[in-house]
Amino acid sequence: MDIASVVGLLVGASLLIVAVVIAPGSALGAFIDYPSMMVVVGGAISAVLISFPLKNFLGLFRVLKKVFFNKQENFGGIIEQLVSLAETARRDGLLALEGKLEEVANPFMVLGIQMTVDGTRPEVIEDVLRSELDAVATRHKAGKGVVDQLGRFAPAFGMIGTLMGLIIMLGNMSDPSSIGSGMAVALITTLYGAIMSNLIFLPFAQKLGFINQQELLAMEIVVRGIKGIQAGDNPRVIEQKLNTFVPPNTRASEKKAA
Amino acid sequence: MDIASVVGLLVGASLLIVAVVIAPGSALGAFIDYPSMMVVVGGAISAVLISFPLKNFLGLFRVLKKVFFNKQENFGGIIEQLVSLAETARRDGLLALEGKLEEVANPFMVLGIQMTVDGTRPEVIEDVLRSELDAVATRHKAGKGVVDQLGRFAPAFGMIGTLMGLIIMLGNMSDPSSIGSGMAVALITTLYGAIMSNLIFLPFAQKLGFINQQELLAMEIVVRGIKGIQAGDNPRVIEQKLNTFVPPNTRASEKKAA
Amino acid sequence: MDIASVVGLLVGASLLIVAVVIAPGSALGAFIDYPSMMVVVGGAISAVLISFPLKNFLGLFRVLKKVFFNKQENFGGIIEQLVSLAETARRDGLLALEGKLEEVANPFMVLGIQMTVDGTRPEVIEDVLRSELDAVATRHKAGKGVVDQLGRFAPAFGMIGTLMGLIIMLGNMSDPSSIGSGMAVALITTLYGAIMSNLIFLPFAQKLGFINQQELLAMEIVVRGIKGIQAGDNPRVIEQKLNTFVPPNTRASEKKAA
Amino acid sequence: MDIASVVGLLVGASLLIVAVVIAPGSALGAFIDYPSMMVVVGGAISAVLISFPLKNFLGLFRVLKKVFFNKQENFGGIIEQLVSLAETARRDGLLALEGKLEEVANPFMVLGIQMTVDGTRPEVIEDVLRSELDAVATRHKAGKGVVDQLGRFAPAFGMIGTLMGLIIMLGNMSDPSSIGSGMAVALITTLYGAIMSNLIFLPFAQKLGFINQQELLAMEIVVRGIKGIQAGDNPRVIEQKLNTFVPPNTRASEKKAA
Amino acid sequence: MDIASVVGLLVGASLLIVAVVIAPGSALGAFIDYPSMMVVVGGAISAVLISFPLKNFLGLFRVLKKVFFNKQENFGGIIEQLVSLAETARRDGLLALEGKLEEVANPFMVLGIQMTVDGTRPEVIEDVLRSELDAVATRHKAGKGVVDQLGRFAPAFGMIGTLMGLIIMLGNMSDPSSIGSGMAVALITTLYGAIMSNLIFLPFAQKLGFINQQELLAMEIVVRGIKGIQAGDNPRVIEQKLNTFVPPNTRASEKKAA
Q1: For the whole model, what pTM was predicted?
Q2: How does pLDDT run across E44-96, given as a tens digit for each residue?
Q3: For residues D151 and A249, what is the distance between their CA atoms, to the nearest angstrom?
Q4: Which residue of D50, D139, D149 is in closest CB contact with A5?
Q5: Is A5 exposed, middle or buried, given 0-12, 13-18 or 19+ CB atoms closer than 10 A?
Q6: Which of A9, A188, A203 sits opposite D167 (nearest CB)?
Q7: How many CB pairs under 8 A join B and C?
Q8: How far is the CA of C113 from the CAs of C124, C130, D139, in angstroms?
């Protein structure tokens, strides 16, 4: 569970609600308007539906889940495991890796080790792994793109809703007492659009960008590790090289030492 | 037919209409104003007419059709066909490809195979195919550019129309009862511009970008495949190489296996 | 004459005028205000005068003329001529090109041929031609830059004028009946700025970008052609190579065939 | 202490306070509204909490401290020290550097010298130092990113607060005398957002960018210096090369001469 | 003196003043408000003070002077002088250049020639000159950056001032007759910010970019010329090569011929 995302969303939403509740003469109910919600949420979703292939759009929920339920990549653990596999390979040969496959949780690493055990040529292994990595990067980009666009279209449909509300209000000016409430309703869509964009979609897109980058970095480390193992490199050298990919405080051996 | 585009456009438009209809005291008729439409649509089209060569502008309808009637590129099928051609070429020689030309639907692939059969030199074939690919990319860019600009000019002419409406209204303030309706009409152009931009042109441009990218990727695969066939590469190697261009779930052999 | 630019500008302007004329209770005269014009046009020109060297600014009229009187580069013709020159050179030697100089209209091609006839070394010819090409590109960029900036400063000075008008109006509120007309006048500068930017300068800048790109592409083709001629390449090979620079439907030999 | 940052912040804040105090009929108290502060500050912080991993957010205070308490990198001093170490190494061998380690304050330089003394291979030293440098750059980027986002979200939540205030006000129009004060309160959040962004976060982010760049340049100089020392280069040559990294007026030997 | 900058600034300012003076019912005095000036100018300067190291900020006046008192680089003259020096060097040896040093005004060229006479190695000369060139480029970038930021912060503080003015006005609505004037004063800061940005800082920054580019181009020509002289190249070849850096109409020999 990503504490920061959950706390940020809860605190942000609470603050806005509290600010409304404590304001003199205001009622929370004045801020709930279903047609406005329909225009902003529905409009933004429609625009995104047109913008992307259906498949990308349907991946949205999986993508949003990631914002809350991502677990930080454990670079140190990945490197440690690769080093341990390298030791096995050096001591008992590449075929001995098969026996250790069960211990490996990371499916990408399993794929690489499996191909190594099968005696696949190094270039082919790298090609296959990189193609997999590229496919993940493309899927990431598509997922983040949908969230980005929601963050861009939500305020636009907020403005569209406000314009519609103003035009309706301006056509009913015979009853001056209704002007205020008409205008209040009109402004609600802009408010919805601004909140959806700034408290939800734009921060989500930013967080996704970070998560995706970590995930790809972990895959990159696996690719390099598998290459080193297959080349029969010294496990210490492999560790040293892989450690240069991650900041000092998340390195494998240094952690052990700490 | 691109379901997502159609559904998105219909749902988006319906939502806005429903929101107007269910609003108390509003009439759909208040949202239809032909001169406003003329200013926004006409203005944006005029600006685009000036911005681009006539040819690009006239291609607009063909481009828009693509948003709704594009069919997803079948990468798996393309690769399968190239592999099958490679097998024929390996077994029976390059000239045997001529007999299989009828089975090939993709005109770009036909061009490449034809040149291969004719014994054209590899560099020339690649030059010709790449030049064709570049021409398609240029045409794509021009087409998307027109839609992009419509999405940018529509809100601008919406604002121009609103300013004109406000100036007219402000010059007729002797009758205060008409102020509201005058202002409502003035705002309609801004509404039109915002809807045209955010529900139509910007999402269309985004989808076009995606479609074009897929089309060029398919052409790139054909170019690589033809090169491999001409070089007499092993069909399995060709398949393996071409598969690295597409995400795992759309690959040729894996699909067959599934 | 660039039909699209002319039609676009006329249609756009007409639409706006018609929209004003058919609006009930409006007079075209209410949209003409010389001081407002002075602020927007004068202000944008002043800002551009400061932004660029005087020379660039003075080139503005030549640049604007280009938007209307550009003629599409005839790539097919240029390539055909280069191929014909290559045939002459191959048959009768480089010196024989001198006799064909009169038939060449393109001054850039004349320069290259002349140097070839004079026996200038290939590297020097390419350096000189590329330097000329770069100088044209720099001039293009400067010219487009001025139009771009006008498109950016016009709305800014429109807003400045409106702010000035509002401040004057707000200082004279003793006569409430004048508020409406005061505000109308204030808004006119914003309208002028928006129209100048969106109907004139921004589309002009876009078209200029396209024209300039075509012009440089034509020059690039000449440079490559001259190099091929001087190297004594086969005219067919030269044609084939130059044709890869232009989209298939504007190629030399294919046109002849059609 | 960074005088410019302190003076800028104090002068900017004072100017705004003075402008309010000297305005006729205004009271400073009208500009203090705790719920508004809560919405803007709390909202921006919530959005940033969602946008970044918790660790990056918690680094914010350390990052902000840097804006006020950074000390300019002393490039001349760093180069002088590296040259002096190079002289020792040349005269008495690399091992003699151990005795000079105490004089070195820069921990990054200590790390490099220590590895040199330990006889670590040059490539490994450079890998380790560069990895450290990259980690610092990543940390910098993350820190600046948080400040950048605060500068972007603060005005957004200012607008959200104003919309909420307007909706509350418009729902209570029965008492016209309260309209003015309700609107004043509504506008305060926009004011807070604008001040926070333009007087604090955006300038801070800009300054951070400069400080970070200097810090990385200093590290780059150390990396190059250590490489030169290990290679046994002439100390004068090392000085000359390192000096090309810094502007003439901050160079080592020229300073001594001045 | 840069005529275009002076004329642009005078014409722009005059136009705005005239527009105010000829407007019916307006007084120039209504546009002068010292506290507003304080907020916009002071606020923008404060923000820039925080954004940049003090040194960069203090260079602002020197930078602004350059906008008005820059003299166009005389590329033809520079090339002519380098060619003349090359002739001396070829005829009488590199040491003979010492006698011609007095005729050279450009201090950057003096530095290069001096090092050539001193027999400094070519790589070292180029390193030193390029380091100098980079330092100038860095100084340029810093100077332009300050002006850019002033152009960005001025409108922001204009808006801040207007918000403050509106809040004060809305708190004093008991006297309706003062509303107009209160709002007028509030808008003045936005006007100041817009004028400062669009008539002064943004155009200045643009001009600075152009001047800096010319200055660096002149330095680049000197570096290449010195290299050619030291290598003992034929003066004609040097001239030909240097001329490719400048547009045809500002070339050395062509000017002489004209």
Answers
A1: 0.90
A2: 999 999 999 888 888 888 888 888 888 778 888 999 999 999 999 999 988 88
A3: 29
A4: D50
A5: buried
A6: A188
A7: 141
A8: 13, 14, 59
